[in-house]
Amino acid sequence: MTAIYLLTVTPVPLQFFTTRLANNPSVSDLFSGNEFPWALSLPDLDTITEVLTSPVRFLHYAKQRITVERAAFSVHGDDMDLLGRYLAGHLGTDSPQFGGYDSVMIGGLSGSVDEFIWKKHEQGLTVEPPHPPTSPEFEALLADVVATRCLGATDCAMVLINRSGNARRRLLDGIADVKARVRKTGKMQRLTAILEEGKLGVSFLALKSSTDPKNLARQLEVYAVTQKYAERCPTWVVLAADVFSSRHVDLCMFLTGAWQEDADLERLAARLIPTRSRNRVG
Questions:
Q1: CA atoms of 113 and 120, how far apart (whole Å)
Q2: Are 203 and 237 spatial neighbours (Cβ–Cβ below 8 Å)?
Q3: Residues 164, 72 within the same domain
Q4: Range of the domain at 72
Q5: Domain assignment present for 239
Q6: Are 59 and 34 in contact (CB under 8 A)?
Q7: Both 111 and 177 in a single domain?
Q8: Is residue 52 in some structural domain?
Q9: In this structure, are 82 and 155 located in the same domain?
Q10: Which pLDDT does position 164 carry in this prediction?
Q11: 276 and 146 in one domain?
Q12: Among 189, 228, 256, 279, which residue's CB has the most CB atoms within a 10 Å radius?
């Protein structure tokens, strides 16, 4: 378990009162340290789970939605408008566009959500819910990561969602290129990207594991631990796939923690990763 998101649900909509509890001085004494929960009505929760159909997307939205409660300024708006802002690409309140404001009203952004709910429930149509601006291929990658059911799979998916559109495209292209090189050479191939000024590493490896199915898991763990140590990254995400698999990813691992000197890992890194080629991606 890496995070807990506190959500308080009301049976009926309370509109702006629950959109941001931090706006209301009358309840400020109930919560210490500006740690206000995400307050949501049951009907709005139902709508959000209809729109954000995967648990990872729901958790990613929840993480951004909770930051609204911690903004340095008052935020006014309906929860459906906040969901619409998320679907438009970004819900976070750390954008420079909010600089210098004491109070912000967010409205008129729920059109895609309203249309989806109306067509589905009022007209009885089978329609796809609105979704954030991302490619079907990237969504398939996320689904494959979660489907591995590896410990940390959700964290791996959350890290990938937070990458820019350019970084997502480069990762997908890199995965395809690595698999092509394995098919050509018959040997294991890898790619590594260092992000966020050295605070995050993302790597992918592929090999032919048909003769030894457990080899992929062994290589995944060895290179995940060794590369995180060698690059001194606090957080590392590693993805792995058999080259003949129909999935983008078959296994994954999420590692986090401060770097500590280790003689055994130093020797292993010197042998497996003699040169460090950093591919920085936004």
A1: 11
A2: yes
A3: no
A4: 7-122
A5: yes
A6: no
A7: no
A8: yes
A9: no
A10: 87
A11: yes
A12: 228
Q: State whether the Cα torsion 49-61-89-71 is positive or negative.
A: positive
Residue 216 lies in a domain: yes
Same domain, 144 and 74: no
Which pLDDT score is estimated for 17? 61
| Helix (H/G/I), strand (E/B), else coil: 3 | coil
- What is the per-residue pLDDT for 236? 95
Residue 184 tokens, joined = 């050509």
Closest CA to 98 of 114, 85, 116: 85
CA distance 187 to 207: 6
Confidence at residue 99, expressed as pLDDT on a 0 to 100 scale: 74
Contact partners, residue 222, CB within 8 Å, separation at least 6: 268, 272
Backbone angles phi, psi at 219, to 5 degrees: -65, -40
Q: In whole angstroms, what is the distance from residue 227 CA to residue 111 CA?
A: 45
| Domain co-membership, 141 together with 272 | yes
Residue type, 237: V
69's tokens = 């409660």
Contact 231, 255 (CB under 8 A): no
| 144 within a domain of the structure (yes/no) | yes
Count of structural domains, the chain:
2
Dist CA 200 CA 256 (whole Å) = 9
> What pLDDT is stored for residue 34 in this prediction?
64
Specify whether 144 is located in the same domain as 91. Answer: no
Beta bridge pairs of residue 192: 203
CA 212 – CA 208 distance, rounded (Å): 9
User: Is 117 found in the same domain as 140?
Assistant: no
Which tokens belong to 101?
A: 């404001």
Whether 37 and 31 have beta carbons less than 8 Å apart is answered as yes
Nearest partner of 92 among 117, 115, 69, judged by Cα: 69
User: Mean pLDDT of residues grouped by 10 in the chain (282 residues)?
Assistant: 80 68 69 74 92 91 83 80 87 74 84 93 92 90 94 93 90 94 92 90 89 86 91 94 92 93 88 58 38
pLDDT at 147: 94
